[in-house]
Amino acid sequence: MAHRMLPVAAAALLAALATPIASADGGKSSSVSTTLTGYQETPVTINSTGSGEFAAKINKDGTEIQYVLRYRDLATNVLQSHIHFGRPALTGGIVLFLCTNLAPPAGVPAPPACPQAPVGGATAIVTGTLTAAKLLVPNVANVALPTQGIDPGAMGFAEVVQAIRNGAAYANVHTSKVPSGEIRGALGNPHDHGDDEDDDD
After folding, report:
1. In sequence order, what are the beta bridge partners of 129?
2. Average pLDDT for residues 64-82, to the nearest whole number?
């Protein structure tokens, strides 16, 4: 599903993902959107020409996240992009891949390739659907997660959804210039209760 799209179609998809949709029984899917900049990066703030947007819609039962990622004006090659488990101003472990141009993560379906987005060039666009099958579970390749308490499988995916809804996750794009992450955006609204209330509508 990941591919370049016409700008008008991409804008329509971005708007659609950022708008909650009522379900047949009156419930709602929830949505999150954010702007990615170097100013939000950790552990150091980055002065970057790059910028981007990320929007996602979580289905009503929390088992699927549809997303669109857009970024532009990055001076060096894009390496990969992820969702991380971490509150604003903190660095967290990778929990879901959005795209990669490096070796794909082990044990999960290969994520799509990251389009390049040189300065002055076209906006790069990646779309996809995230499920529990794509969750990175604690293992040797992802040593940050064991101390963060994310469980494997459907339980862990539900924990990530709850983290997103509670402002404890972020999306970022890593480049060859800044492999630790060049542009970043916080997901959800930070608060300290569970996800019984959805503040992202």
Report:
1. 66
2. 98
d(CA 30, CA 32): 7
pTM recorded for the entire structure: 0.82
- Contact by Cβ (8 Å): 28, 21: yes
Distance in angstroms (rounded) separating the CA atoms of residues 158 and 109: 19
Per DSSP, helices labelled H in 18-167 are 153-165
Cα–Cα nearest to 31, from 47, 45, 20: 20
Helical segments of the chain, H only: 7-17, 153-165
What confidence tens digit (pLDDT) does each residue in 137-162 have?
Answer: 755 455 556 668 899 899 999 999 99
Residue 132 phi, psi dihedral angles, 5° rounding: -60, -30
Report whether 36 contacts 160 (CB < 8 A): no
In sequence order, the 6+-apart residues with CB closer than 8 A to the CB of 94 are 82, 83, 84, 136, 142, 144
The hierarchical CATH code for the domain 7-187 is: 2.60.40
Burial of 9 per CB tally in 10 Å (0-12, 13-18, 19+) = exposed
- CA–CA dist 105, 90 (Å, integer): 23
Asked if residue 81 lies in contact with residue 184, where contact means CB atoms within 8 angstroms, the answer is: no
Residues whose CB is less than 8 angstroms from the CB of residue 95 and which lie 6 or more positions away in sequence, other chains included: 82, 83, 84, 85, 135, 136, 145, 150, 156, 160, 169
